[in-house]
Amino acid sequence: MTRKIHIFDTTLRDGEQSPGASMNTEEKLVIAQQLIRMGVDVIEAGFPISSPGDFRSVAEIGRLAGDDCVVCGLTRAVEKDIDRAAEALATAKRPRIHTGIGVSPSHLHDKLRITEDECVERAIHCVEYAKRYVEDVEFYAEDAGRADQAFLERVIQAVVKAGATVVNIPDTTGYQLPEDFGRRIKGLADNVIGIENVIISVHTHNDLGMATALALQGVKNGARQIECTVNGLGERAGNTALEEVVMAIKMHGEELDAHTDIVTQELTRASHLVSRITGMSVQANKAIVGANAFAHSSGIHQDGVLKARNTYEIIDPADVGAAGSEIILSARSGHAALRHRLAELGYTFEDAEFDEVYQRFLEIADQKKEVYDEDLESMVQERQRDVAA
Ligand code: KIV
Ligand code: ZN
């Protein structure tokens, strides 16, 4: 049996930090319902001290989730944040407080203006303080991707000793290269005493377009939780996309020694829902859930897919709840695709006639980005009229 990788969804917290993507409580509840249906292990429902609306969202989602999943609220390493998160999470059957502090030189010197010793002290205190309220306390080491490794290990050692159940290693600025991030996780897995009793979590951002690669390197090197968002929503270039890591683990489970419990057939529905509610459209060529993820446009690819789907498709669209493979007719399409679509519309032609039909098709296709069924219907009718005349 491969290792279970916990999927920690932060669409409603880090995802919502995406400019223009804010949601009200009712909208968050609709998304939370879909996340539960999809089988996520943890929902990060918000940052309770940030606003009364976020407080309410965390409380309502805590009530909604019941035993289905862990519900988590974010805090800074500040007592009043933790008090407020505990209050919001009182409705949850499986509450988790997610607290932490910056650990990189830039966070220590420029943002927090504290020494390394003060940082360790505050890290220990926030975990111990949160433990007064809940058993399940996750610690985040913000900007771990740019931290000194020895100092990161010192902080993580201290919070593990203080009782953290999960340690989150974020590459907050999306700066790391996958192999280096993997080495960071391995360093923690090898050197922190007692780490085998806690879950190492990876939380990566997409500033260099490598969030998914980093998360998977984390998993290869000992992480057992991935923090991610639907459609990769999030600050700046976004967070790790849930659908990408889940499908990568599904496709490469053996080599990663990993599996998730996500109902992958719900991924497309989740993507559409989040896009509709946030108003953030999904790029057409987005992996797994983009409109073109299973669309084939060139003649060579179309011919291959029509002969055997797996020549150019590694995922069965049904596995992610997508409508199916699509053959897009354009000036790049070949005979096979046109013949196939015409046959689906009920038109078949002898080889000799078909060459002429194909030439007519190319003339239309050269004027348009895509040739639709209506174009084919009028092309065939026009030809029938010409032949009859
Ligand atoms: O990117 C980050 O470091 C975060 C933390 C608050 C977990 O979102
Ligand atoms: Zn983040």
Automatic annotation (TrEMBL):
Binding, Mn(2+): D14, H203, H205, N239
Give yes or no: UniProt keyword Transcription regulation. Answer: no
Q: What class of enzyme is it?
A: transferase
Please list the reactions this protein catalyses.
3-methyl-2-oxobutanoate + acetyl-CoA + H2O = (2S)-2-isopropylmalate + CoA + H(+)
- Alphabetical keyword list: Acyltransferase, Amino-acid biosynthesis, Branched-chain amino acid biosynthesis, Cytoplasm, Leucine biosynthesis, Manganese, Metal-binding, Transferase
- E.C. number, please? 2.3.3.13
What range(s) does the Pyruvate carboxyltransferase domain occupy?
5-268
Annotated pathway: Amino-acid biosynthesis; L-leucine biosynthesis; L-leucine from 3-methyl-2-oxobutanoate: step 1/4
Q: Which domain of life is it from?
A: Bacteria
Gene Ontology MF terms: 2-isopropylmalate synthase activity
What cofactor is this protein dependent on?
A: Mn(2+)
Q: Does the keyword Acyltransferase apply?
A: yes
Q: Tell me the protein family, please.
A: Belongs to the alpha-IPM synthase/homocitrate synthase family. LeuA type 1 subfamily.
> Main role?
Catalyzes the condensation of the acetyl group of acetyl-CoA with 3-methyl-2-oxobutanoate (2-ketoisovalerate) to form 3-carboxy-3-hydroxy-4-methylpentanoate (2-isopropylmalate).
Assembly behavior = Homodimer.
List the protein's name: 2-isopropylmalate synthase
- Recorded source organism is Thermophilibacter provencensis
Q: What is the lineage of its organism?
A: Bacteria, Bacillati, Actinomycetota, Coriobacteriia, Coriobacteriales
Q: What gene is this protein a product of?
A: leuA
Specify first residue, last residue and whole-protein length for the fragment: 1 to 389 of 511
